[in-house]
From TrEMBL:
Organism: Actinidia rufa
InterPro entries: Lea14-like_2 (IPR055301), LEA_2 (IPR004864)
Short name of any one Pfam family annotated for the protein: LEA_2
Residue stretches spanning the membrane: 33-56
Region (Disordered): 1-24
Source organism superkingdom: Eukaryota
Name this protein carries in UniProt: Late embryogenesis abundant protein LEA-2 subgroup domain-containing protein
Amino acid sequence: MPPQSYNPHPKHDEESSTTNESKELRRQKQKKWALYIIAFVIFQTGIIVLFTFTVMKFRTPKFRMRPASSFDTFDVQQATPSFNLRMNAQFGVRNTNFGPFKYGNTTIHFYYKGTEVGSATVRNSKANFRSTKKVNVPVDLVMPSNLANNSDLASDISSGILPLTSQSRLNGKVEIMFIFKKKRTANMNCTMEVNISTKQLQNVKCK
Ligand SMILES: *[C@@H]1O[C@H](CO)[C@@H](O)[C@H](O)[C@H]1NC(C)=O
Ligand SMILES: *[C@@H]1O[C@H](CO)[C@@H](O)[C@H](O)[C@H]1NC(C)=O
Ligand SMILES: *[C@@H]1O[C@H](CO)[C@@H](O)[C@H](O)[C@H]1NC(C)=O
Ligand SMILES: *[C@@H]1O[C@H](CO)[C@@H](O)[C@H](O)[C@H]1NC(C)=O
């Protein structure tokens, strides 16, 4: 006798258990896929966020006076306080963006206690992807006649330090991946000291 005859339902039971098993298997598979998709979405979101905060972030470049400036002409008089200097000024345009910063012509103004004593012009150019563009420009710093008999100047010169400031605005565009562009303005606001005994620039500080 076949064993089935003892139990009228074994086939049916077997069948139902396999369907249950395959259903369970399918559910697990679906769960696995759902997890994969969720993980992928989280990963993708992470990548996008990371990208947005690094590569796609537009940072304002820094425009600064560099200490590596020297003097060709150095004439500072203490008896009748006056100065006449020709400085080989070095400027830096520091671009930390993931793309070039293209800027226009600009003028840098030098002041002694608020009185303009000279200016330099920087030609339009660009600072490349995450780099500092260095520009050397000669600038004449000449005492204007309205500073003659200025007591501050007399005391500064006798102390051995001529304090100066430089100011400028550099207008340009940051370009990321050739298509994303944003205007950015780099402000220069520096203070520096001309050391009269060493004929060098010292304590160059830029904001
Ligand atoms: C920038 O300056 C140069 C000469 O100094 C001049 O030829 C050029 O036209 C200027 N560019 C702009 C956009 O003014
Ligand atoms: C500076 O002082 C001298 C002498 O005291 C005077 O002759 C001269 O006119 C003054 N110059 C200016 C620009 O005030
Ligand atoms: C530069 O600094 C001076 C003094 O702190 C301030 O008055 C001026 O607004 C600053 N300029 C820029 C462009 O930041
Ligand atoms: C000028 O520079 C020399 C050499 O670095 C230094 O010893 C001196 O103190 C400086 N003078 C002033 C007034 O800071």
